[in-house]
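Journal club side-thread
Mid-discussion, someone asked how the predicted structure for our own chain would compare to the paper's figures. Pasting it here so we can look after the session.
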Amino acid sequence: MRTDRLFIAGLGTRVPELFPVAEAVRQGLYDARTAEADGWRSVAVAGSEPAPELAARAGALALRRSGVAAADIALLIHAGTYHQGPDLWYAPQYLQRRLLPASTVPAFALHQGCTGILDAVQLAHGYLTAHGGAGAALVTGADNYGTPLFDRWTYAAGWRTGRGSVLGDAGSAVVLSAHTGPLRVRAVASSSLPGWEELYRGDERLHPPGATAGTPLALGSRMAAYAARHPGAAERVAADLARARTALARQVLDEAGVKASDVTRVTHVFTGHPRYLRTLLDPLGIDPARGLLELGRTLGHLGVNDQLVGLAHLLETDAVGPGDHILMMGNGVGISLACALVEVIARPGWKPNT
């Protein structure tokens, strides 16, 4: 979807302290051979800092950088892949109370896996457009995987994701405006491959949900169980995902009127190994070096946050400037896919945490 008037007015991230992979291996948390093969160097670990608090800190920074008044925010959307707090309690209103005092605008939760932020950008654009382009939208995301029933180091064991996934914690936020900002969203789109939802469900029953019954989350085991019943599934899902991901990126580039050769950098699901970037970018004719391998392998896969953390890093380090184009690619369980093309209009002058 081409977005004629959608700007990024502010960005904020909250990335906690890094925990070295070597220490995880020493403590027996992470297999040494797997660590060497997958290439991760460290992982962001938030400890007891709740996911909504990670989002609140990122949101406060994004609002401050944007210069947009809280009273001008017409919509809040919060995304996360994992539990955000108590059952029958929802993080968007917590964030609204923290970041937008006295606001009564709609505040929504988006549980859409690792594409949640990019999907929220698309939904926010539709909302602002339907309301005459008035005001701005605040999109936040956060995940903290440090819970008793989840092992960030081994959750994918039993299934090769193509990037050897380990998970880090983070929060991120973006203020979207229909009027002005140093970055312009030229196009954004989403798609899905529902034929593969059973792959991620495996043999686990739908009710009662595993988290309520004390069942540890073992995604790799669920996927392996499905593959055992469906020979060749691993190869087919990899091919389907690659085709769909490439097609969606080409769609976004076409809608934005930008050639792949004009893409300066790419934000993506973080990986510890260059093979994933080759799989992702070679079909588009984009040099894998335009990805964020070195950044990602120090943070871990940050759930919904990879794309905004990557974009903020590029801007805060002056790795991109006016006229540059950033392709933002994401996919998640389900399978969901999302993509956006962002153009830098002016250097925002943002520095880390300021």
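Post-session note: The chain has a mean pLDDT of 95.
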